[in-house]
Amino acid sequence: MNPIQHIRRYQDQLTEWRRDFHAHPETGFEEQRTSALVAERLAAWGIEVHRGIGGTGLVGVLRNGNGDRAVGLRADMDALDMPEENEFAHRSRNPGKMHGCGHDGHTTMLLGAARYLAETKNFDGTVHFIFQPAEEGQGGARAMIAEGLFERFPCNSVYGLHNRPGMEIGHYGIRAGAMMAGAAFFDIHVHGKGGHGARPESTIDPVICGAQIVSALQSVVARNVPPADTAVVSVTGFTAGQAYNVIPERVALRGTVRTYRTEVMRLVEARMRALALSIATGFGATAELAFREITVPVLNSEAETTLIADAAAAMVGEAHVDRQRPPVMGSEDFSYMLAERPGAYILVGNGLGEAGGCEVHNPRYDFNDAAIPYGAGILAAVVEREMPRLKD
With contact defined as beta carbons under 8 Å apart, do 338 and 300 qualify? Predict the structure, then answer.
């Protein structure tokens, strides 16, 4: 039976679980309740559970047959630090926290795949169900890897997924190579000499200096990044004084950089540092740049991309699988797992319009429960395709 059809048998229960996760969001490295519920359900299906990997992360292990291959399936569990504006019954009960990116759905999808594989055992080898904490910029993937994820749970390949608002339910999107961008956050602190707003000649105005730095940073992509490459530099915060008649002593800028190649990220960092320091010197001020990598680019390996796309096409038809999905400037720390093992990251349609088209990280976003069997189904199908059961 098609995994999607099998998983639909218990979709009502999966939907109930997903909405419970949504109502009780937990942010990075605080996913105690979520992790405990996941462990309880895996154990109930006879899956071996290992907890406390990378903080609140856990891995379920399911073996069948005599095969020596192993596949890792990963889902993220954390919510966002943001208020929710939805009014449905399963809205967040934790003020200031919200499942605004669909990780509640991803966790549920992996649980659905785990139940299916535990029931059918239509594979020959080992499956590692990787439930990761702290994906939203806090380094959960790196934390699990640092604590021996792939040494303790060897994987020949790893697979992950994400819901995609604006893509129809039952559709998938993927591409080989760069699927998502690497990301960095930056802070620039400019230190001048404060004073009275009526006597600017006696100050070194960090506001003017900071404004010039913001403007100059826009030249990095336009004049330093090769046209064949892609990069984004966005200043997203500018903090300065509080009084109308006081030129402040210092200002702080912050923002993000996105690129598809690590070499381009290094180039952007070097140019930003040179511009910030030289502009500050020109004004008689000083500047410091703190630049920190959040993720590397998501790079899908060729063979695994073909394999999971073929698995999707076998379930829903080739017309519903976009094998050349354009890359996006969003980022995802599953990239660190892909840097360790070959694998692929696939998008699963979350629906159109009110049924699931609201963009992620929006206070009115909600994961579309109709997508659960498709996400769970593709994770299960890739295991069956990569580790087929030997014929009796």
Answer: yes
81 three-class SS: coil
258 φ, ψ (degrees, to nearest 5):
-130, 135
What integer is the mean pLDDT of 362-367?
Answer: 97
The whole-number pLDDT of residue 226 equals 95
Determine contact, residues 288/189, Cβ cutoff 8 Å: yes
Q: What CA dihedral angle connects 37, 308, 171 and 17, to 10 degrees?
A: -10
**What's the mean pLDDT when you consider all of the chain?**
97
Find the angle CA(62)-CA(63)-CA(68) to the nearest 5 degrees.
130
* CA–CA distance, 175 with 305 (Å, rounded to integer): 7
DSSP 8: G
The DSSP letter of residue 170 is: T
The amino acid sitting at 67 is G
* 186 DSSP assignment: E
Region of residue 121 (left: phi > 0; alpha: psi -120 to 50; beta: else): left
Q: 30-60 pLDDT, tens per residue?
A: 999 999 999 999 999 999 999 999 999 999 9
**Across the chain, how many H-helices and E-strands are there?**
11, 16
Identity (one letter) of the amino acid at 35? S
Q: Residue 213: enclosing H or E segment and its boundaries?
A: helix 206-223
Tell me the C-alpha distance between 314 and 355, whole Å. Answer: 25
Q: pLDDT for 172-198, tens place per residue? A: 999 999 999 999 999 999 999 999 999
CB atoms within 10 A of CB 75: 26
- The b-or-e profile of 206-226 (16+ CB within 10 A means b, else e) is bbbbbbbbeebbeebbeebbe
Instruction: Tell me the CA distances in angstroms from 110 to 2, 286, 290, 356, 373, one per residue in order.
Output: 17, 50, 37, 20, 10
- Residues 6 or more apart whose CB falls under 8 angstroms from that of 12 comprise none
